[in-house]
Structures are given as structure tokens and as C-alpha cells.
Amino acid sequence: MILVVFLYLSSFLSITFTKAFITPAYLNSSCPSSLNFTINSIYHSNLKLLFSTLSSNATFNTSNEDSQVFLGNATAGQAPDEVHGLFLCRRDLNSTTCQDCVTFATRNVTKICPTGKLAIIWYDECLLRYSNQPFFSSVWQNPPISVSSAEGVTEADKFDDSVLSFMSAAASDAATSRYKFARAKKENFRVNKTLYVLLQCTQDLPAGDCLACLQRANADLLWCCGGKRGGRVLTPSCISRFELYSFFGESFITTVELEAPGPPPPVSRFPPAAGPATEPQVGKRRQPLWIAIGTIIPTIIVLKLSAYFLPLIWRRYKEEKAKRRALQVLRSGDEQNILREKHEVESQDFPIFPLGQIFEATRHFSDENKLGEGGFGPVYKGVLTNGMEIAVKRLSRTSGQGLQEFKNEVTLIAKLQHKNLVRLWGCCLEEKEFLLIYEYMPNKSLDVHLFDSTSDIQMDWKRRMRIINGIARGLLYLHEDSRLKIIHRDLKTSNILLNHDVNPKISDFGMARIFGGNQNEANTNRVVGTYGYMAPEYAMDGIFSVKSDVFSFGVILLEIISGRKNTGFYHSEDSQSLIAYAWKLWCEGNALELMDPTMVQSCVLVELLKFIHIGLLYV
Question: What pLDDT shows up at residue 509?
Fold first, then answer.
């Protein structure tokens, strides 16, 4: 009891007497809603003790300042209510900044994640993490959080390659350094510009795991921050950042050229003698005696009341838990399937967004933020607190697709990474909401610009060729170059999205299927997709393979060339599809009549005939 009283008092007094500090710069946080504790439970008490220990480790140095100031981990309680925690401060900042950040994080994380059994919060100066499962000395890279500069650069591809090459070398330095930390600069990186990079892992990681974490973070930089003047990726185990301005702490030595820093200067527990600037560090701790008395007495009263009420609350909690378990057993088979599917999605190694965060980003799914509606349900634009734009697909309860398609998309696209595939950032499964969170595509889908004469994007021949080649690269990746052989099964112009630069990205993997290493085709009784884009053997017999997607791509290619839809296409003489019309023109030697009239000025006829020929071969 004396030890408990001391820990509670030390936590309470450290908050009361702490010196004034500058609020750390909040970046992001994550607290999956699937695992919660009860307020005033044993786990809650252990979490408070953990925060007290971590704050003490950050505030009071020992002679071993290397591990105590910038990295600290601790465990409180015993299983099943054991809680593990860790903080990591940027090593280029001073110890006072670290102390302030950790103290603030321990207070603020419970506001953001009030009942989460696991959470992580990132600031510019530090990160704080805790969990009901041990995680020390292991690599954890989900969820990855990204922050990018709003400004872009010219010749983005060359810029990105040079940045990644430099950061790769810095990652090796960080992984092999004593503190798992490296900062570096490259002068004359661009005209009158210097590149600054910083990489850091939690110091408990082995060198190989640290390097793997940083390499993955550097790769993610290309997705989030490609073509930008700066950006960073934050994970639970490492951080990676680059900028075209100096963002290091004051201790950065300007002559460093890609080398991990040496040991920081010793940090004394006591301020230097004399000098008005250092005097408040001690002076501010001197508080009147009545304040100490006024905090000790209420704390003792609270502890006594807790000792009486905690067993009652814990007993009530176990009874309620038993009732909920009994109700689950009595639920219908369909609802049990939904719960099981939902658990499988949440158990994926994949970011789960809190519903409140999505509500805030989309303004509670306001009509002003609605981008459109598909078979899955409505799609909304959202803006996260870090300024990143997202697109949110919301499963409609009257949708033809269901939870199985939702799970299929999460498990498939989360494992795929290619510049011509839409990036899935995460999902949300709360309060009967099933949401998919994608990167935002500002230029909408390809069909909008092909078939709408009011489109503000000029679809000249050069642009259409680039779109065709981009779709082909994405499809080749799905069929041949990814770890999994994926058959999309619903390839169409409305599922081709266009980014800021009008580059194509394949989307909507709800109907996709994975093929085994030696598997070439499969058969299904449930034919899904869109008529007009389906290969005949799939539409009639349910047989699908990579050829099914190639057929759909051929239809898209003919639509891009003609500017006309295959579905609902009617020729003036006799009703027929776009494919039949194109074939007829080709056989009559009039293939150029297929061309969209708006391309007359920009089109190269030899190239056009070649693409028409390829499109007809595909179908």
C-alpha cells in the first residue's frame, strides 16, 4: 500500500510541480477500438502507474543518459492486466524537450484514446506507445502514418530516386549506429538547395530489424510524398524524414555528410552554477508547503475509496462480460458470421481508423463531400487532421456487395503496391459501419472524362496513350509481377481513377480473386462484374482467368480510342456492340472511323491503327 501511495503521489505531484513548457507539435495517433478497458479497472490503474514510470524515466536522468533520456520502456502490473509502454525522443533534440514531450504525451493520449488497451501517439519531438501485449525488441510497422509537404518539385521522378538513394545509405548508417539514429545532409542537392534527412529506430531493435523498418518506411515515402519537397513516415518502431530545409535540433554539426552522430554530450541532472537563465529549473520546484498538503490528503482519500469500490466494479464488469458472451451464443447464425468476418478483418496487419476520425474528416458524410455512388455504396471525400486528403467508401446496407467483398478488398489490396493501383490506407468497422479509406483521386474516374463532353481535362491522343500504358502496367503487375496472381474480374472505365497528373490507377478489388502458383483458370457459379466488359466464357460458363481481365482491358482500350461506351452502344444501321462495330470497320478497311473526333488534331494515325489492332486482338 505504501508503494502504491508513493507512485500515485509521485505521478500527481509531478503534474502539479512540473515547469512550464512549450506544447509539442502533435502529428497523429492510433488507438484501435476493438480492444478496450473499463474505467477504474485494474488495467486502468496499471496504465496510470506505467505513465508515472515513463514520465520519471524521461524527467530524471541517471548516469546512463544514453538510454534514460531519449528512450525508455517499462511494464506495470501482472497478466492478464499487464501493460507495456515505451517512449522514444528524437536524439537531435535536448533532454528538456524530451521531458516536456513525454510528460505531455502521457496526459494527452488518454484524451484521444480514453479506454484503448493499446495506443500510439506521435509528436514532432517524440512518440509514446503502450499495449496489453509485449512488443519490446520487435519490429512493428503498422499503422504507418505519413505527413507530406504541400509543395511539389519539378522532375519529380529524378528527385524521388535521388532522395531514396540518399536515404537508403542513411538507413544503413542508422541501423548500425549505437543509438539507431542518423541524420545527414547533402549540399547542392538541387540548385541552391540542401537535402536534410533524419532516420531513427527504437534503440531496442537489432540492427537487421531496424534496417528493415527504415527501408519499408523509405519505400512508403515514395507513395505518400513522391514529388514533394519534404515528407515523413512514422511507424511504431521507426521514423524516416526528408526536407529541403534544416529541421534538425541546435546540436546538428553542419559539416556532417551522411554519418551517424557520435554520443551526445553528457546531460547533467543539475543546472550549471549561477546565471539567471538556469535558475528557474530549480526555483520552480519550490512550492509552498500548503500545496503539498492539499494534494496529499485528497490523494489518500481517493486511494481509500478506490480500495473499497474497485473490487465491486471489477465483479460487476465480469458479470456483464459473462452476459454479453451468453448473448453472443444465442445470436442467429447470420450475425455470428458477420462477427466472425469482422474479427478476421480487424485481425489483419492493417490500419484500423476510428469512426470518430472518419466522421470528422468527412463532416459526418455530408452531401457536400459526396464524390459519387457505386455498387459498393457512396464514396465521400475527407481531410484528416494532418491535412491528407482521403476517399471513403461506405458499404450501403442495400448494396449488392457485402461483408465478404469488403473483407476481400482489405486482404487483397493491402498486400499490393504499384503506382498504377489505388492505395488503400485502412478501414473502419464500428457501429455497423464498414468503411474503406483510400488515397484521394482528385480527377475522378476515367469514364467521366471519356464520355462527358463538359469535362475540363483535354483528352488528346498523347494523354490517352499514357492512360492505356498505365492501365497495362497495373494489370501486368496483378497478373505477373506481384507476390500474388490477382484476377480483377471487374475492370472497366469507372474503376480506373485518375490522380493529380491524370495518371491511371486501377481500383475496386471487391470482386478480385487470388490464383495459386500453378493455377491458370477457375470456375464459379456466381458470375460477378459488369456486362459489356465480361469475356464470353466468363459470362456464359463462369470460367475466368487472366484472359478475362485482358478481354476487359481490350474493351476499355476501344472505348478510350472511340470516346464511346461499349454498354448501351448502338450503331445507326443495326444494333450492335462497340466491339462488333470496331471489327466491322477493321474488316472494311475503315478502322480510322473509330477514332474520337476530338483527337483529329493530336492523333498519329500509325499509332492509332496499332492500338486498334491490339484492342481487337484482346477481345
Answer: 80
pLDDT digits (tens, 9 = 90+) for 86-127: 999 988 888 888 888 988 898 888 888 888 888 999 999 899
Using 50, 70 and 90 to split pLDDT, how confident is the model at 3? Answer: very low
User: In whole angstroms, how far apart are CA 233 and each of 104, 244, 465?
Assistant: 22, 16, 33
123 by Cβ neighbours in 10 Å (0-12 / 13-18 / 19+) ranks as buried
Could you tell me which residues are beta bridge partners of residue 395? none
202-233: b or e for each residue (b if 16 or more CB lie within 10 Å)? bbbbeeebbbbbbbbbbebbbbbbbbbbbbbb
CATH topology of domain 346-439: Phosphorylase Kinase; domain 1 (3.30.200)
The answer to whether 441 and 391 have CB atoms below 8 angstroms apart is: yes
Catalytic residues: 490
Q: Is 205 within 8 Å of 178 (Cβ atoms)?
A: no
Report the predicted TM-score, pTM, of the whole model to 2 decimal places.
Answer: 0.47
Amino acid 525: pLDDT = 59
CATH T-level assignment (fold) for domain 145-243: Killer Toxin P4; Chain A (3.30.430)
Beta carbons within 10 angstroms of residue 291's beta carbon: 12
CA 403 to chain centre: 21
Report the CATH fold assignment for 2-131: Killer Toxin P4; Chain A (3.30.430)
In this structure, are residues 173 and 184 in contact, taking their beta carbons and an 8 Å threshold? yes
Spatial distance between the Cα atoms of 282 and 186, rounded to a whole number of angstroms: 41
